[in-house]
Amino acid sequence: MNATEWRETVRALGCVVCRRFGHTGTPVAAHHVATGSGKRSPWALVPLCYEHHQGGAGLHGMGSKAFCRLYRPPGDEEMGLLIWTLEDIAKSL
């Protein structure tokens, strides 16, 4: 599987936050997860709908710390969204 195929696999899951609340079918963008301002890996992706990505209740809209306090991903940090994504992929296999 190449990076483009991986991105499409991740996007096909639907929003990783919406799924935690029982909502499915929302269109998503693939958000690159990273710490700091370093280079982003094409493999560290999480699917987020517009509202949870860039909207008022989103990662970029609220900022990472407030977003993680509200939605409580594992470790209460952005990398926890990657854990949720990998768990969802494992369940779909």
State the main characteristics.
93 residues; mainly alpha; two-stranded antiparallel sheet; 6 helices; 2 strands
As a percent range, the share of helical residues equals: 40-55%
Measured between the Cα atoms of the first and last residue, the distance is 15 Å
Helix/strand-derived category reads: mainly alpha
Strand content: 5-15%
- Spans of at least 5 consecutive residues with low confidence: none
Q: Quaternary status of these chains? A: single chain
Order of neighbouring strands in the sheet with most strands: 1-2
What coarse outline follows from CA principal-axis ratios? Answer: globular
**How many runs of DSSP E, i.e. beta strands?**
2
Radius of gyration: 12 Å
Largest sheet: 2 strands, antiparallel
Tally the helices.
6
Overall pLDDT metric: 92
Q: Name the helix and strand elements from N-terminus to C-terminus, one letter apiece.
A: HHEEHHHH
